[in-house]
C-alpha cells in the first residue's frame, strides 16, 4: 500500500458535540490536502458539499451517537444527508434492540436506510457494548440488510476498535475500524487485521506517520 492508498483509507473525523463549521472546514482542508476522506456531522453536510476545498469523499452519521432514533427518523435523516450531498452514511444500530434479541428489527431498520439512499451505508455496531456473539449477530443483520460495510464504534462509548473485533467483523463485510486509532502503527494494525477503512480524529498524524 503506497502513501496515497493509505491516506485514502482514512476517514478524518470531527463529530464532537461542540463541533463548529470552523472545525469542519479545518478537517475538510486537512483531508483534502492529505488525500483523506472526511466524516462530519450531518448539520454541516450541505455547507461541506459546497466548500471549495472539500475532499473527494464526505461521510456523515445517522442515528448518532446512541442509535435510539425512531426507524423512520433514521431513514429520513439519511435521505436528507444524501440530498445535502454526502457520499456515504455511517448508521448506528439500536444496540438495545440487538441485546433484546430483536435482530429482525435491527436488520429491518438498516434495510430501510440502505433502500432509501443510493450511496454506501456503513453500519456502526458499537463493539465495546457487545459480546462476541452479539457482534456476530449485528454483522449478520448488516449482511441481511445489504449494508456495504460494518464499523466498530462511534467513539462515544468506552473502548474502540481492536484487532480482534476487526478480524471477527471482517468475516462478514468490509470493516471500518473507528475509535482510539491515533497513529500510523495502530492504523496499520487494523488494516492488517482486515479493515479497509479507518475512522479517526487524528488523521493528519496518522498519515504523517507513513514511512518516507
Low-confidence stretches: none
Q: What is the number of strand segments?
A: 8
End-to-end distance: 13 Å
What's the oligomerization state? Answer: single chain
What is the N-to-C order of secondary-structure elements (H for helix, E for strand)? HEHEHEHEHHEHEHEHEH
Radius of gyration: 16 Å
Return the structural class.
Answer: alpha/beta
The percentage helix is 40-55%
Strand order in space, largest sheet: 1-2-3-4-5-6-7-8
Biggest β-sheet description: 8 strands, parallel, barrel
Q: Name the beta content range.
A: 15-25%
Helix count? 10
Q: What is the 3D form?
A: globular
The average pLDDT value, as a whole number, equals 97
Task: Pick out its properties.
8-stranded parallel β-barrel, 45% helix, Aldolase_TIM, 212 residues
Amino acid at each position: 500500500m503506497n502513501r496515497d492508498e493509505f491516506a485514502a483509507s482514512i476517514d478524518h473525523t470531527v463529530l464532537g458535540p461542540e463541533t463548529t463549521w470552523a472545525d469542519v472546514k479545518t478537517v475538510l482542508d486537512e483531508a483534502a490536502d492529505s488525500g483523506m476522506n472526511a466524516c462530519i456531522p450531518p448539520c454541516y453536510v450541505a455547507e461541506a458539499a459546497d466548500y471549495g476545498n472539500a475532499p473527494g469523499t464526505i461521510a456523515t452519521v445517522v442515528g448518532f451517537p446512541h442509535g435510539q432514533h425512531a426507524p423512520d427518523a433514521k431513514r429520513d435523516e439519511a435521505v436528507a444527508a444524501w440530498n445535502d450531498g454526502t457520499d456515504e452514511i455511517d448508521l448506528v444500530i439500536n444496540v438495545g434492540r440487538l441485546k433484546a434479541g430483536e435482530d429482525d428489527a435491527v436488520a429491518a431498520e438498516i434495510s430501510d436506510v440502505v433502500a432509501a439512499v443510493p450511496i454506501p451505508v456503513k453500519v456502526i455496531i458499537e463493539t465495546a457494548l457487545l459480546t462476541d456473539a452479539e457482534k456476530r449477530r449485528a454483522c449478520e443483520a448488516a449482511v441481511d440488510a445489504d449494508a456495504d460495510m460494518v464499523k466498530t464504534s462511534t467513539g462515544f462509548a468506552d473502548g474502540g476498535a481492536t484487532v480482534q473485533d476487526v478480524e471477527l467483523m471482517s468475516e462478514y463485510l468490509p470493516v471500518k475500524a473507528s475509535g482510539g486509532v491515533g497513529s500510523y502503527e495502530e492504523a496499520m494494525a487494523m488494516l492488517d487485521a482486515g479493515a479497509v477503512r479507518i475512522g479517526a480524529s487524528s488523521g493528519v498524524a496518522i498519515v504523517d506517520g507513513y514511512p518516507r
